[in-house]
Amino acid sequence: MTSIGTGYDLSVSTYSPDGRIFQVEYAQKAVDNSGTAIGLRVKDGVVLAVEKIKHSRLLVPDSNRRIMTAAKHVGIVSAGWMSDTRHLVKRARDESRSYHDTYKRDVPAKILAERMGMYKQAYTLYSAVRPFGVGTIMASYDADGPQLYMVEPSGQYFGYHGCAAGKGKQVAKTEIEKLKLGDMTVREAIKEAARIIYSAHDETKDKLFELELSWVCDESGRKHQRVPKELADEAIQFAERALDDDDDEMEDDDE
Fold it and tell me: Among 214, 208, 179, which residue's Cα sits nearest to residue 196?
């Protein structure tokens, strides 16, 4: 039974006859049309990277960041609506602060992911609200070691070794699956993350973008920080060389 165009997509609290909630699916479309974001969990930390599409050459470089800090040991990168992202990051900060005030220790990544998932899911229950059009990737380093979670617009959350969201997620997932993440260091993961973002960007053919990189690892003191500029520049050069090599191989195959 088809239910497209029959009014079942007008409210988030209404199921279609075949059990779908169209507003949640539309929110996922907003995520899929955004710049690619990835997370890589390796043996000594977690790396976050995102393709920030530049909609105008007049924008100030390095402004409107897509990677944000929710707590000193937690970083968040998102794919989707930036306005929704800022709201969710504020909520994550409130949850982190509340947990610390109550238990006098940093919030574990799993607890924070669960609370953020419950918060997102609450916005799929009432007709007066809409789902968040954001896929949230969360990196942390807590007592259990490096942690990586992704919270979807529906409120589902999963732990990952590597994950991707956004327009180029299929390309990114394919590249991530080739990596031996358990044997990699964060410095190696930074280069691979840059290469994957450049590969995904090349597939989607968007013209202007900035690469943002952050990490939470032993080298950063288990605090979420931006990747130092010299390492980020080195990773970008590595990614550009890898992309050029792929283009050369394709030209040789055509000949």
Answer: 179
| Residue in the block written with tokens 């800090």 | 69
CATH number, residue 153: 3.60.20.10
The pLDDT score that the predictor gives to residue 7 is 81
Cα–Cα dist 184/98, whole Å: 34
Average pLDDT in the 75-90 region?
A: 96
Residue 4 covered by a domain: no
Query: Which of 154, 172, 152, 171 is CA-nearest to residue 163?
Result: 172
SS3 at position 60? coil
Average pLDDT, whole number, for the chain? 91
pTM beyond 0.85, yes or no: yes
Alpha helices in the chain (DSSP H): 22-32, 82-103, 109-122, 169-177, 186-204, 229-254
Torsion from C-alpha of 141, 232, 52, 175, nearest 10 degrees = -70
Say yes or no to pLDDT of 1 above 50: no
253 belongs to a structural domain:
no
